[in-house]
Amino acid sequence: MAGFDYTKQIERWDIFEVSCPGKTEGNPFTDYAIQGIFKHKNETVKLDGFYDGEGIYKARFMPSFTGEYSFEVSGSFSEKKYTGTFTVEAAGKNNHGPVRVANTYHFAYEDGSPYYPVGTTCYVWELQSEELQKKTLETLKNSPFNKIRFCIFPKHYDYNLKEPRSYPYEGKPMDSSVLTRENFMQYWGAGREAGNDWDFKRFNPEHFRHIEKSIAALRDLGIEADLIVMHPYDRWGFSGMDSECDDLYWNYCIARFAAYRNVWWSLANEYDLMPQKKISDWERYASIICEKDPYNHLRGIHNCRPFYDHSRPWVTHCCIQRQDIYKCAELVAEYRERYKKPVVLDEIAYEGNIQHGWGNISGREMVRRFWEASCRGGYAGHGETFLHPENILWWSHGGELHGESPKRLDFLRRILSETPGLGLAPLQAGWDEIAAAPEGMMGTQGYFLYYYSFMRPSFREFFFDENSEYRVEVIDTWEMIIEDRGCFRGKFRVELPGKEYMAIRIRKTL
Amino acid sequence: MAGFDYTKQIERWDIFEVSCPGKTEGNPFTDYAIQGIFKHKNETVKLDGFYDGEGIYKARFMPSFTGEYSFEVSGSFSEKKYTGTFTVEAAGKNNHGPVRVANTYHFAYEDGSPYYPVGTTCYVWELQSEELQKKTLETLKNSPFNKIRFCIFPKHYDYNLKEPRSYPYEGKPMDSSVLTRENFMQYWGAGREAGNDWDFKRFNPEHFRHIEKSIAALRDLGIEADLIVMHPYDRWGFSGMDSECDDLYWNYCIARFAAYRNVWWSLANEYDLMPQKKISDWERYASIICEKDPYNHLRGIHNCRPFYDHSRPWVTHCCIQRQDIYKCAELVAEYRERYKKPVVLDEIAYEGNIQHGWGNISGREMVRRFWEASCRGGYAGHGETFLHPENILWWSHGGELHGESPKRLDFLRRILSETPGLGLAPLQAGWDEIAAAPEGMMGTQGYFLYYYSFMRPSFREFFFDENSEYRVEVIDTWEMIIEDRGCFRGKFRVELPGKEYMAIRIRKTL
């Protein structure tokens, strides 16, 4: 037995990896199978391993319990079986397990801690230079973001014409020196005819190892990795593989990444911009995930224009790109009603100043959209697209944040973390205020959050009951100030500064 | 013959009034008829006169042509007939005649001059103190507004609890000293039981004479009087009269006001807040206007929630209050398509800071909504509701303007006045810009107006054709600056400051 270390302690929801030498004749990615069985008194998990190159096969496992486990790794990759036992310790302080759907519309870590997603998007941050990746991680560390959307395949698009640090397959890419801002769309979906020469049955393990390193680095920062497995921004033919190669890719991703507790599966970004994939294809990918991911990680699929049918049973939460320039976060309550699942608006336009309308809203508008979504019991997603002398835009490349919204989103995350229960639900109140109460408690907990968006009332009047006492706080969501106004009974009036973006939090005193 | 003066010159579209003594026994408002016939080689107009109190009956006429007219005024009000002739001169410099619908979606004065409505609302400005009315007219004189919406009946509502300067009927009102901000809604729609004692068959001519004086003062400032004839904000019973009294009122208003060229008929404000009136009532009022207004003044009806059916033939233009907090002006193109009539968004929330969500948007948001409406080939309406130590709010009382939007609306009016033709039409362009071209010319005139709303592009690229030359101007709609960027051919790029509320005007050079 070789390549794994029994003595290493692992925590609950960490990775136990069995690494074994195996056959190298033919194509190890397709010609041999490797399976692992991991047993504990509470669970028995069967999973596929994968070929990691250089004669090494691996099987990875994430234990859901503490205590004694045994394992057996075997298959056609080797004449030998690899068996053993290991012990799982309790999770450490910052390890809460995978994120799960909880209370229909919200999320919680598997240990029961609330999880309020405040996500961002850096599509191919991990395929940039080492220096830039380091900077991105440093920025994330000091940011409010606890989820990040990014792609496994490289990206071809405006501001994304350079070569990525590595490619997922053996072979060679088309010559990128021909690309200009004017002609790049001609290469959208290009394949072999453009000079690409890939073997879609031979992965480049180094590319995937690097993605894993990135997932782990995010995990260590407490950030969920919302993996975009497929996307249309392609000049290499990765978006146009046949179903056999697609399925091989999906299986390889699951075998490699599923054991990371912070993984979410985003089947696609803008699935509807990939007409080469039919709904039956997406459903087949979903069935592969459901069959092969033993941990039931969150699954969603992101639209450009029409939503995917988020009522499909395998969809755990709605991943939504806004369909309208003006209204998006304001529709969260309708989406909740329609799908009865968590609503995550992972694209509501980005803070920035580029020429594209999806990438040039103000920080104020970004923060307003987050509050609108949150007070309706949903979640919004951040992104940033400021013109940059070296074309380093957070949205795709990571790097540094330049916008005004992140620190206000941190403030919002604080407000959410002070909510009883797992999240907010929209409350019927006045037509001209957005009101929320803790999910499932509809005011019975004596917690009310009112948001006035771009409206600028100079005062508002309230009445809950004659007898209880309520503490009133006026929140400036932009200036990030919470002002305690003291306690009130019966009918009372709250003076406001007649500014935009104000909120009022009212909590019954004990 | 008495009470009118042949020697007075009148202009085309001015008022020729025949004033005659008549019977006073019984109720002169209901017991006698007075009719006038006015003849010119091009028109013969029959119309009803009215009783103006103190034994005087009047018939009023607005001539549509220059040259010789004859008239005959007669009826049961008098044993005598009053006849004569008069001469109509050409219209003076600032007299363009009544406003008409032109080119399906727009307006023009009867003399063919374009009319781009930039309206405001001061519901009962003319029922305030003389001093305040004077101030309102002074403010209007220095404002961009060329239309104002106001009521004939007084208004009962939040910030509107005082007595008006006069009442439309003989009798006496309920005691208003009982009213408070807390209890006023209890008196909504009150009648006799609350202490009101009116004779709905005896008008107070002085009230109506004062309205006429106000209409004339507006006319002299070049402002259209969008008369709100009925409304629900009532504690006196005026909104709850029976159909006989309603019809008497409508006939009286038409007989008195129709000869003023700047009158528009707004059948109601928030017709749907008057459940006591059925659709058949509104249709009956409309049929009275169509029958009795010889000049075919513009007719509309304003909603609170559901729109009236603006496709009714008598509706000349859509009077629309927004149905959604977030989207209103952005829907103009859909409304144009649906109704094939001019779209006037006469209520899109007011600039201000009161507690009500309809009265506390920023000047920036107000101006943005005007531009959104204008670039889609419609028109928006202004209003202002800032808290005031004496409760003088422009929206209801007039007075002074305090907001930031009016001068920007003046700037927009200038931009509109520089458009070829009568107005703008929405143009299909990028999904992330609002584009307009002159109505009916769809770019063939080489005029394009692009508006970026809250989006903040740092540049945009254009291509119309290889050969023509285009002059490019960058417009800061908030700072009111037009920057000439010179002329371009073929594909060209326009640099922008990455700020909100920018527009680009592109015109083919000759």
SSE layout and pairings?
The structure is a homodimer of 510-residue chains.
Chain A: E1 10-11, E2 16-21, H1 28-31, E3 35-39, E4 44-48, E5 50-51, E6 56-61, E7 67-74, E8 82-89, E9 99-102, E10 106-109, E11 119-121, H2 130-141, E12 147-151, E13 169-172, E14 197-203, H3 205-220, E15 224-230, H4 243-257, E16 263-268, H5 279-292, E17 299-300, E18 318-321, H6 332-339, E19 343-347, E20 351-352, H7 363-375, E21 379-382, E22 384-385, H8 394-397, H9 405-417, E23 424-427, E24 434-438, E25 447-451, E26 459-463, E27 470-476, E28 481-488, E29 491-495, E30 502-508
Parallel strand pairs in A: 1-8, 11-12, 11-21, 12-15, 15-16, 16-17, 18-19, 19-21, 20-22
Antiparallel strand pairs in A: 2-6, 3-4, 3-7, 5-6, 7-8, 9-10, 13-14, 23-24, 24-25, 25-30, 26-29, 27-28, 27-30
Helix pairs in contact in A: 4-5, 7-9
